[in-house]
Amino acid sequence: MEKPKLTIDEMAVFCKRKGFVYPSGEIYGGISGFYDFGHLGVELKNNIKKEWWNTFVQQRDDIVGIDGSIITHPMVWEASGHVDGFTDVIVDCRKCGSRFRGDQLIEDKHKVSTAGISLEDIKSSLKKDKIKCQKCGSELGDPKNFNLMFAINIGPVQTSSSVAFLRPETAQLIFSNFRLVQENARLKLPFGIAQIGKSFRNEISPRDFLFRMREFEQMEIEYFVHPEKQSECSFVDEVLDYEMNVYSADMQKNNKKMERMMIKDCLSKKIIKTRWHAYWLAVMHKWFVELGADPSHFRIRQHVKDELSHYALDTWDLEYEFPFGWKELQGLSNRTDFDLKQHMEHSKSDLSIFDEETKKKILPHVICEPSQGVERAFLVFMFDAYHYDKSRENVVLKLHPKLAPIKLGVFPLVSNKADIVAKARNVYNDLRREWTCTFDISGSIGRRYARGDETGIYACITIDFETLDDESVTVRSRDTTEQVRVKIKDLKEVLRKFMEGEKLGKLGKSVE
Ligand SMILES: [Zn+2]
């Protein structure tokens, strides 16, 4: 079945119409870069976070979680380099005052990635290409640096020492709590600390719906290793045969296409330098694919020399092919001991840990920092789930059952027979103890199925006249429209197996 590619704007319209995402404060005209999640969006978002936490914290012995505060001690951001260096370049129009991001102006003009471009390069490029205001065509002013952190004031009086920041990333809270977490959770290297939570960036030009927002959520891990054991990775065997689209710095430099490669070949050809990096790239990719995302829409891309962050030794992004091109989904950088060192210097606290084996104090290195935006994951799952079914003449949102906001719909076949409605209510009340369910009584059964398809309801259960005779119901699959007849006493077990991936046809008597 041919899948029409939705634009990002069409996805925004779909999300609004079905109750997933609304522009924040829309009754007042909205506010750029901020979105509210509706009754289905909140469920999907919570499911994404729950699956991530389950995979990377609860199912692992080597990672624990924290939940840090959003307003953070200003020294944290001083030490991390954000106060001085967390900037974008802004350019104002001299005439109409419109404000642009310098790198985006150049990107729009030349259709190339400008990641990592400096203020000086932006200045000379704007001049050389005679780039004008995108709104009115007038002259642009001088480009200047702009700090992306939201500053706020703590307490009733505003002084220089009352200024604090909304955190621009979750990572620094992990570093500032590093010693306490390591000691109390008795973590031994290698280990990770994870966090899910909101971050805030005063983006100059938020764009592309949920892709670049001013308030967003991150799911992040800092993974620490012994500085002398950076090449040892006991988990790498799990992923050696795992395949992904790979786009190395060399391939980019030589204008080559990305290649489908196995992890073991990336390592033997030294395309990915460390095993830890290879491991984390593979498991993050796998997380998406196991939750129903299409692997052909993903690639891993190595940063080229100019775009490496100030702290990073080698950075790879997990990228996704959005309707507006290949974009970063997740950055996985090697942050070395940069952050812990910075916090030791600025706080004068000892953040090193005692290594039993060498009987020495060491400062661990962050070998990898998988950092995922929740809303970007949200977009990925929505895009890959969205199908228009020509024969059904409606959208089918094929979200993985673990992600589907509402798993089950319970429908009495007719609304004017009290005993059928009562029976359906009983089934519904029983099922909702275990799964998110909806009870829908209005419109034809076909209309109710279509409504369920469009919001990703994984299975629909219909109670009809036959149910009153033999205690059986019809279960319908969202993805195949296949229907089977199941006894109410077996219903929960059937649904459990169906959601774990068994074929519905094998779980009940087929209905023609
Ligand atoms: Zn202008």
- The coarse silhouette is globular
Our estimate of the beta-strand percent is: 25-35%
CATH-derived architecture of the domain at 39-73 and 166-382: 2-Layer Sandwich
> CATH superfamily assignment of the domain at 39-73 and 166-382?
Bira Bifunctional Protein, Domain 2
Helix content estimate = 25-40%
CATH topology of the domain at 39-73 and 166-382: BirA Bifunctional Protein, domain 2
Bound molecules: zinc ion
* Rg, Å, rounded: 26 Å
- The total of beta strands comes to 27
Distance between the first and last residues' Cα: 23 Å
Query: Helical region count?
Result: 17
Read across the widest sheet, the strand sequence of neighbours is 3-10-11-19-16-15-14-12-13
Account of the protein in words:
The protein has 512 residues and is an alpha+beta fold. Among the domains are: 39-73 and 166-382, 2-Layer Sandwich (BirA Bifunctional Protein, domain 2), CATH 3.30.930.10; 406-510, Rossmann fold (3-Layer(aba) Sandwich), CATH 3.40.50.800. It is 31% helix and 26% strand. The chain is built from 17 helices and 27 strands. The model has no long low-confidence stretch (mean pLDDT 93). The structure holds zinc ion. Zinc ion binds next to loops.
Task: Outline the secondary-structure elements.
Layout: H1 8-17, E1 21-23, E2 35-37, H2 41-58, E3 63-66, E4 71-72, H3 74-80, H4 82-85, E5 87-92, E6 99-101, H5 102-110, H6 119-128, E7 144-147, E8 151-153, E9 163-166, H7 171-176, H8 178-184, E10 191-200, E11 215-225, E12 243-247, H9 249-253, E13 259-262, H10 263-268, H11 275-290, E14 298-302, E15 315-322, E16 325-333, H12 338-347, E17 353-355, E18 360-362, E19 365-373, H13 374-385, E20 386-389, E21 394-397, E22 408-412, H14 418-431, E23 437-439, H15 445-454, E24 459-463, H16 465-470, E25 472-477, E26 483-487, H17 491-499, E27 509-510
Helix pairs in contact: 2-13, 3-12, 5-6
Bound molecules: zinc ion (ZN).
